[in-house]
Amino acid sequence: MAKVPVAVTAASGLVGGYGVARWTKKRPLGGVVLAAAGAVAARQWTEKAGAGKAAALSGLYVAAFAGSHPLAKKVGAWPSVFAVAGTVALASWVVERGAGAS
Length: 102
Hints:
- The protein is mainly α.
- It has one domain (7-101).
- Helix content is 90%, strand content 0%.
- It has helices at residues 6-24, 27-49, 51-75, 77-101.
- Helix 2 packs antiparallel against helix 3 (51-75) and helix 3 (51-75) runs antiparallel to helix 4 (77-101).
- The protein is globular.
- This is Integral membrane protein.
């Protein structure tokens, strides 16, 4: 069975967490999705790129979640979520490719 790329896991956590919170109207449930995907991504980042890069990417994941809120006031909720999810996915992909090349 093929592993899901960690960039997809991280982006899905941000998009899925928001989607679950919005559609269920239960923010804590969205937080569970966000945290679970973040934990899986952090474990995968550690395995693929090492603890230091995993910590940096995990920090970016949390910052993206926090940053999506003020960004949503400017561009709307869904565009904000997709923008931060794309940013995290791109950063993850770049770090993962760099780790694989060494």
